[in-house]
Write a structure and sequence with these properties.
303 residues; mainly alpha; single chain
Amino acid sequence: MLYISVLLPYIILFSLLIRSLMMKGAYFGLKNLLAAKVPALYSMEVWRRTGNQLFLSLGPGFGSFTAISSYIPRSNNCIIDAYAVAFLNLLASLTTTVFVFAVMGHLVTDSNEKCYLMNAKKVMDLIIAQVLPPEAHPPDSLYYDPSSIYPKWLNNLPEHIKNRILPNLTECDLSKELNKVMFGPGVVIVTFSDIISLFSGPTFWSIITFLLLVNLGLSTVIGIIQGIITPLQDTFSLREHSKLLTVGVCVPMFLGSLLFVRPSGSYYVNLLDDYWVSLPLFFIVILETIAMAWIYGARSQMR
C-alpha cells in the first residue's frame, strides 16, 4: 500500500507539472521563483519556516521512520535509504514549487489582462462621454493580446493625452498581483483547487487532483499511525489485537481532528503548523540523536 500511495503522487505531480508549464504566464511565475532575494537569507523567520518545512516534509521525530524500518532486514544498507529518502523529498518539493509558481504566474497574468481590458473599457467610455479625444482610442488588436499590446499603446500615447488618461485607470502590476495571490500558508491548496477550472477537461483533472490529495494524505497518515502502533505493540504485547489497537488509535485522532473543520479551524491549523509542532519535533530529534550516539557510540556512527 505504501508503494502505491507514495509513488503514485510523484507520477501525478509530474503530469500536473508538464501541463502547468504549457499555460500562458507560466514563464512569469518561474522568473519570480528564480529571482534572488538576498535580504531574505538574513531573516530568522525565513529560516524558521525552512526548518519547519523540513520537519514536516521529511518526517523526522514522528516515529514513522523507526517503525517502518523495523520491518527491513538487518543486512539492508540504511545509508543508501537515507540518501534516497532525502533525494525523493527534494525532488517532490522542487516539482511542487515549480508547479505552484507556474500556476500562480498564469493566474496573475490572467488577472492582469482583465485589468488591462477593464482600463481599455474605461478609456472607451471616456471617449464616448467626450472627456478624452478620439486619439486616445485603444487599438482593436488589444483584445487579442492585452499583455503585449496594452503597455505599447499606453507608452506610445502623446504625453498630454497620457496625463489625462492615467488618473482614471487602475494600476495593473504583475509583481503586486503575484504578492497578493501568493500570500498565506494555503497557497498550495488554493493552487490545486484552481487547476480544476484552469485546465481543459476539468472532470479528468479533478479526479487526478483528488487521487493526488488522497494518496498524499494516506501515505502521511499510514507512516504516523505506524509510528504510534508499532511501539505500543512491542511494549505491551498487543500484536494479537492489532486491529482493535488500530481502531483505538484512529478514533481519538479522528475526533480530535474535528476541531480543524470548525469555522475557526484555519486559525488552529496555523498555530499547529507554525508553533505547536516544530519546537517539540526539534527537541525530539535532538533526544533521538543523543540516544543513538549513547547506545551505538558517536564514532561508530560516523564510520
